[in-house]
Amino acid sequence: MVPLIMILVYKDPFPARVWLSAVLASFGALLLSTGKISLSLQWGDSLELAGALFWSLHVILIGIASKDIHPLPFTFMQLIIAGSIHTILGFIFERNTFSGFSESMIPIFYTGVFSIGLGYSLQAYGQSHAPSIDASFILSLEAVFAAIFGLLFLKEVLTYSQWIGCLIIFLAIILSQFRERKQEDPVKDAILDL
Do the Cβ atoms of 113 and 124 come closer than 8 Å? Predict the structure, then answer.
């Protein structure tokens, strides 16, 4: 979705390799998540697509903001705002108990510090050095690593189709990184070497 949103906003066309990479990564994600080629959408799938739209906007926003704002203050403010909104919504819509909260302190701490705090800080830092398109492809490896670590630590099983999905996502990322070779100018190179 990132290339699609960016072309709508910036009206700047991307090379064919970007579109091919996006299609391949999407197809790989479909195989990884379902284990089959299925285009029937359920209610949960619609929620996932909405989440992917917001995630894409988030990647683009980080790409824009990280060029002008240092990643740490940006991430800190992002986490304060998101945490406040989620806390308010949690009190409104969830049936939380303080005993349940105290039992969950270790997972909450781990997720807050490492997965969210460290993860989003590193993402903002990385995106200050990489275009949003490249970052979106690289971040699509999250699903691949989640599947692999689920296999290693939770003894989950991946089907052949899911392994193929992982491979397709990885190949899409490699394809997205190919750049057209610029025509070499020996005279210009010689002048620059001086």
Answer: no
Same domain, residue pair 141 and 48: yes
State whether 22 and 98 are in the same domain. no
pTM score, whole prediction: 0.71
| CA distance linking residue 190 with residue 74, whole number of Å | 43
Residue 186 forms part of a structural domain: no
Q: Does residue 163 carry a pLDDT above 90?
A: yes
pLDDT given for residue 115 in this prediction: 81
Residue 103's domain spans which residues?
Answer: 70-127
Supply angle C-alpha 148, 151, 153, rounded to 5. Answer: 105
Do 3 and 55 fall within a single domain?
Answer: yes
Please indicate, yes or no, whether residues 82 and 161 belong to a single structural domain of this protein: no
Same domain for 63 and 18: yes
Amino acid at the residue 13 = P
Locate 124 and state its tokens: 């903002």
Token readout for 126 is: 């990385």
Q: For residue 180, what pLDDT is reported?
A: 60
Measured distance CA(187)–CA(167) in Å, rounded = 43
pLDDT in tens, 74-94: 888 888 998 899 888 888 888
Residue showing tokens 């190179």: 189
User: Cβ atoms within 10 A of the Cβ of 23, count?
Assistant: 12
88 domain residue, yes or no = yes
* Count of all residues that appear for the chain in the document: 194
Contact 28, 167 (CB under 8 A): yes
